[in-house]
Predict the structure.
Amino acid sequence: MSEMLWSEEFTDRSVRRSRHPDPDWAQACRLDPAVLRSLQKFQVGESGDGANLIARASSTGDPDYEVAVRLFVAEEQNHARMLAELLRAAGAPTIGAHWTDRVFIWSRRLMGLRLELMVLAIAEIVALRYYRALAEGGNDALLTDVSERILDDEQYHVPFQCRRLVVEFDSLPKRARRPVRHAWRLLALGVIVVVAFDHGPALRACGVTRRAFVTDTLALFDDAVASVFEGD
Ligand SMILES: [Fe+2]
Ligand SMILES: [Fe+2]
């Protein structure tokens, strides 16, 4: 099979990252208070240990996929670490779990790999639009640097989750595909609207309205879903 390995690109990326020095955390950093509060929540969201996902990946019996998932979790933990450094540079503490994060973790625990990846993909797509807003409108050099680094990873994570979902949906009966697709989109819309409200002031500070955030993120979601259900 000439298919690219699941872990291949993650391995390359981790080597590349190890050669690329960290941002200069000592530089002056001034963040809008709304952006700070928003980043504190995202920092918690990025910091999970991924134990559930790794357990499920290992139960697929595909060691290469398991390696990829472990490297994926390590990238997310690196996001949490960089955000914690960024908050420290801006003089703000990290916070404990936020309710949206607890709901997210708790709901994922109840799911199989397929559902977990569907929920995770929504979070990754939300992250794409969110970090782009910060990178483009955050108005601080350190924030821009960190956001661009995270964005670079998230741009790879979305296709990674989608590529696996194609495999996971392979066994889904034909007549179930449309309803699953619709339910997934409804869930995504709900999550995106909640994030747009919860993080509205931070997005606003970056020049993105709630409405634009919802529209853009939903468009990203629709592209991702189309790649998963290609040929339907
Ligand atoms: Fe992330
Ligand atoms: Fe991600």
Q: What stands out?
A: The pocket of fe (ii) ion (ligand 1) is lined by residues 46, 76, 79, 127, 150, 154 (CB under 6 Å). The chain has a mean pLDDT of 93.
